[in-house]
Amino acid sequence: MPETRPRLLLLDGHSLAYRAFFALPVDNFSTATGQNTNAVYGFTSMLVNVLRDEQPTHVAVAFDVSRQTFRLAEYSEYKAKRNKTPTEFSSQLPLIERVLTAFSIPFLKAEGYEADDIIATLVTQALADQTADMEVLILTGDRDSLQLVTERSTVLYPMRGVSDLARMTPTAVEEKYGVPPHRYPELAAIVGETSDNLPGVPGVGPGFAAKWISTYDGLDNVIAHADEITGKKGEALREHLGDVIRNRRLNALVTDLDLAMRPSEMALQPWNREAALELFDELEFRGELKTRTIETLAGEEPMEEGGFELEGRILGGGEITAFLEGLGDQVAGLHVRGSWAAGSGAVDGVGLATADGQAGYVDLAGLTPDDESALAAWLADTTRPKILHDAKGPELALAAHGWRLAGVVSDTALTAYLAQPDQRSYDLADLTLRYLRRELKGEGDTDQGALFDDGADVASTAMLYARAVVDLSTALEGELDRAGGSQLLTEVELPLVHLLASMEETGIAVDLDHLTSLEQHFGDEVRNAAEEAFAVIGKEINLGSPKQLQVVLFDELGMPKTKRTKTGYTTDADALQGLYVKTEHPFLLHLLRHRDVSRLRQTIEGLLKTVQPDGRIHTTFNQMIAATGRLSSTEPNLQNIPVRTEEGRRIREAFVVGKSVDGIGFECLMTADYSQIEMRIMAHLSEDKLLIEAFKSGQDFHSITASRVFDVAPDDVTTEMRAKIKAMNYGLAYGLSAFGLSQQLGIEPGEARGLMDEYFETFGGIRDYLGGVVEEARRTGFTETIMGRRRYLPDLTSDNRMRREMAERMALNAPIQGSAADLIKVAMLHTQRAIEEQGLRSRMLLQVHDELVFEVAQGEREALEAVVRERMGGAADLAVPLDVSVGTGASWHEAAH
DNA sequence: TATGGTACGTA
DNA sequence: CGTACGTACCATAT
Predict the structure, then answer these.
(1) Number of domain units in chain A
(2) pLDDT under 50 in chain A at which residues?
(3) Which of A36, A748, A802, A837 has its CA 20 to 30 A from that of A331?
(4) At what angle are helices A801-837 and A494-506 packed, to 10 degrees?
């Protein structure tokens, strides 16, 4: 370790907080309980940044006590012009002190003096101690402190807002003001200081003041030679000499206060992580500042005794049984080394660890038959509690080895997702750093660790990961519990992991012949469309290039300009349709045709690439992507297979019932979907009488709502009326605007506005509900689904209109989309449970948000349909019935209804 | 070779 | 100027 020079960081708490208070918008920074936090936030943010960037060894913060200072006693007008400190500000000072206490940073006050004086005293003491050889940094928004700048002490002065700091060294001060630091107060005395209500010499700015000070070598000589200065400015100086002398007396900082602490006692101490994070929760500081704080202060924490040593070892042949028995019913963290994708995987080894420090690593190579069976039994034992990080992949890998995984009582990735559903990823190392202030170095790292990897490193890394999972789950579950999300974890998301794994493992059969012939067909269509398009314009271009298209459409063919995009004018399908209506140019038709068929071909090619040797496609369901709680599907995405057009639906013909396995034959596919699930949830949440009645009537929903809005008999609802209300019904849950509605229906914005008014007049409960959702979310900072799934929307209080309105639409949508997601997840679990209880061999294959796809075992069609109707229909007890429609057929297309 | 923008498929 | 996703391609920067 190189000897580091001690570095003392002193902050002027009052001036920094005051700056933050005016730099940050109040309405963006306040808690659900109405406590303003902009000053605390800004101060904390600056503090953390400077701790991170400057790496001080000693820190302290100085505060003003009150306005009763010796300066006021001497000059009754001191700071008199300053507005009365707003309570919104002063109420935050105790919070800042709590932050400092949690960070273990001392703060000082001195009756009758200002923070500046405390800092001046400490700087003087620090610099006087020759043996300590201390370097001093002063973070303050008060320019008076510039007089403290020396070769060994630097002022960091916030430039704009709270982000940029100017580094005021002696050279910097001289460059900016034209005088050396110790003469700065002399300059200030001449110029005056408005914020302190210290008037200077009128008409004299810093330039002239600096010139005088250097010409006469100091303020004393300027005063002595005041008679020699000519002109208006000289006259003004002579008239205001008294003010100047008074100013100089008042802006001199006191350097000999009797303080409770000396600089040497201010060595940085370990922070109180728990208290700090709890306080952050209370202040509703999330995300970036929290992460930055943890990353910055983690290094200051004491290493636990013995660091993070695990009593771990590589378990040799014959040792595994005893080791597993030794774990007893303790919760074990598991880290599976291996790979997984497309519903399968492979295991290389398994790291295990418990909270008491026991750990072991099992290398799959070289297991004795006894080891194998002991491990298999332990893994499958529901009474042996286990925690994993993102268990689905490991479960697939273990399954591929023939091992069943059961008794998973928690999953750290899922817990983190439920606690903060808007994160992009839930990487174990990131979470460990954030929540446990521990650096997890691992196999994936590109430092020496990976290059010189040997068996021991792999094993110890795996054990370390396993241990991290155990510790992390404690921290995360605390956070989730405080947010009321524990039930959602244990009763929905956690059990769903196993079901999703089995759906991925099963996959869905495809008709390769059909798929390849479709690819052929659409390939021909693409070529035809392209040829015809080229024939019209007399040359060949890349029809997939928006840039080349723009040249042809707007320059060469001179068509009217469409809506602007960042890079030019849009050529999307809507715009091309619009252009065709105006120009009837045949090129547009061929272009649109080309778009359609190339997309279909591309979809098919994507699917073909993912067909596994078993003739099935095994998608991956991601449970931790969508902030609303929905699943997503990748490689390939089976949740966006075309269905709207006739040609698109031909792709669905390629998803078929599979061949028999293990002697069990399958007779067909079955699809079961909820109808109008989101509107039903809205009816439930809003308790709108009329809407609930509409659903209970069981009639065509869009027609019945249209008949209400237009006040006509259900039989007199025209197709036009129905179409308009259908668009409204669908748009409502997305935060549709009158403009958006007019756009979609091709009607005047005024008419759309009237339609919406009429709709909300009819369904007042909906209007009240939607307004209430946003209002409450703005107050609490989050929305909530029927099952308590939260989504945090800090932008609801943004002063950026775009961001705020975006957040408002998210707030409208999240409870509805999210509740629907809760509901179908419960339905999946209940359906699967019933399938198992009744010993059915049929299998759940896919989930497409409001639809489930099953493979029906021979002879089980009726039984499965009954199960599905009962379990999906009964997934929740809402104010309206849950309507489920079911269809069967040899392909996904035929099973649609 | 990675990234952003555009476009478009689903609920 | 309607939410939530994933994928593909082009164009641009590296």
Answers:
(1) 4
(2) 1-3, 300-307, 443-453
(3) A837
(4) 70
